[in-house]
Specification:
Helix content: 25-40%
GO molecular function: hydrolase activity
InterPro entries: AB_hydrolase_fold (IPR029058), Hydrolase_4 (IPR022742)
CATH class of the largest domain: Alpha Beta
Domain Serine aminopeptidase S33: 75-177
Number of strands: 10
Protein name: Alpha/beta hydrolase
Largest sheet: 8 strands, mixed
Keywords: Hydrolase
């Protein structure tokens, strides 16, 4: 075989193997769970209790819940990112507690000791169960804030778009436009990612359906989810949107770099907190 033909054949083989690996192992690229159950082991989390909720497809999921200290305080439905488990978000609960807010952190299926396997449809079912639990506890819709982190932002957008009138505001921390856009950005050699990816998490297409105020938080130096994706979501939204970009922040630094204060001020105005 001619050397050029050998090179073309080798390139094609590598491409086919790469595409096959992505199709078979894509869940490992998208979801990075810590499967062990986290523990509530900090004095600052004394108001937090571990419990379970049941999804519409029958899974029992771990939740960490904390009641608000005042009837007019926000209650955050927190939907975390693709890595780790709830234990990596203890500091968030401590911040919520210090402000007197309530919170419900939902542990995804397949994470933190939960049964099941994560998927786009499955995570949305998990979020629905978390919202239903807050509603069953009697929290007013105008006080419920859906806060999504990274991958959780796509679930937050989908939940807010389908549950009109059930929430008061949405916070999107490090949001992306869609998983297809992320695949094109980080795996440019992939042909036709639209045909390869089962889970799409297409927030750009979904966010026009959100009717409550939205806050978008991005880091200017985020190399995983570039800030232009937050700008694109802002442009596609039809509800009131505010956007904050931290110039020197990456993908995991926003809440320690002023982001929490921005969220607090946003909610004080949008939810008319006193």
């Amino acid at each position: 075989m001619h050397p050029i033909a050998w090179a073309l054949a080798a390139t094609l083989l590598i491409l086919v193997l790469g595409v096959g690996a992505v199709r078979l192992l894509q869940d490992r690229f998208i979801y990075a769970p810590t499967r062990e159950a986290p523990e509530l082991d900090e004095p600052a989390l004394a108001r937090v209790s571990a419990g379970t909720i049941t999804t519409e497809d029958g899974l029992r999921l771990l939740t960490w819940s904390m009641p608000p200290q005042r009837a007019d305080a926000p209650v955050v439905l927190y939907l975390h990112g693709n890595g780790g488990n709830l234990g990596d978000r203890r500091r968030r609960l401590g911040r919520f507690a210090a402000l007197g807010w309530g919170a419900q952190m939902v542990e995804w299926r397949g994470y933190g000791g939960n049964a099941g396997h994560p998927s786009e449809a499955g995570l949305l079912r998990d979020a629905r169960a978390g919202l239903a639990a807050l509603q069953a506890q009697g929290h007013a819709a105008g006080r419920i804030v859906v806060w999504g982190e990274s991958l959780g932002t796509a679930v937050a957008v989908a939940l807010a778009a389908e549950r009109h009138g059930a929430i008061g505001a949405v916070v999107l921390e490090l949001p992306f436009t869609s998983l297809l856009d992320l695949a094109a950005l980080h795996f440019p050699w992939l042909p036709a990612p639209r045909l390869l990816l089962r889970d799409r998490f297409d927030s750009l297409a979904t966010i026009p359906g959100v009717t409550v105020p939205v806050l978008i938080l991005s880091g200017e130096r985020d190399i995983l989810v570039p800030p232009w994706m937050g700008e694109a979501l802002e442009g596609a939204a039809t509800a009131p949107v505010e956007r904050w970009v931290k110039p020197d922040a990456g993908h995991e630094e926003l809440t320690t770099e002023g982001g929490f204060a921005v969220v607090t001020e946003f909610l004080a105005r949008r939810l008319d907190l006193r």
